[in-house]
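Reopening this one. Same input as before:
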Amino acid sequence: MTTGMKLSSAHKAMLGETILFSGLNRDERNALLSCAMIVRYQMHDILFHQGEQAAFFYCVLTGFARLYRLGGDHQEGDIRICEPGDSFAECMVMDGGDYRYGAQAMEHSIFARFDLERVRALLDERPHIGIAIMRSLSEHLLTTIDCLASDRMQTAPQRVATYLLTHCKPEGLAASMRLPFQKSLLARKLGLAPEALSRAFSSLRAAGVTVSGRSIEISNLNVLKTVPALTARHAP
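Same output, byte for byte:
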């Protein structure tokens, strides 16, 4: 990890587009930005460990962060993959104490790191910052509910098909896309083992999905749409 650096104008502009900063006026944004520094991590660097005293929360500017929980047998369970614009650990502003999960950089990544004590000191004078944090936490909750529903209601091919349909670039009936990360990270994001993801892609060949490295071609979107539609058709 590099030591903390000041935010550039470009970094501030990127943060201004995030949910965390939505609804804040200029003074409130500047006050919250004054609590942040830029940090860079290499792939697989640990940002913080589960059980460590919480000192910061983060927002992804470039790269990706993996949030994970340790079980009693020290096995790691993925919770979430954070992409550019996502924030995490801001719950510690309200809750304090120790981090409830660990965080790891999954590529060469740049984060805005916010000092928790400095942010807490702003809340009495600038309550809208607290509301913005609550809005961000609400978004996390809704995303988590969607992920749980997907895990319980969709098969692996259906999860992959849904991801492709929401991220591809349509070109008439066909579409294409390039994964922004390695397939191993997509597997983590979708809550699948790598071998389950491979089997899912294989099964989607019949729906016109062709995979070559990170590049994905879809021959007919209407056919692919029938795959996740099976979930709704058979739901109770």
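So the earlier flakiness isn't reproducible anymore. For the record, The mean pLDDT is 90.
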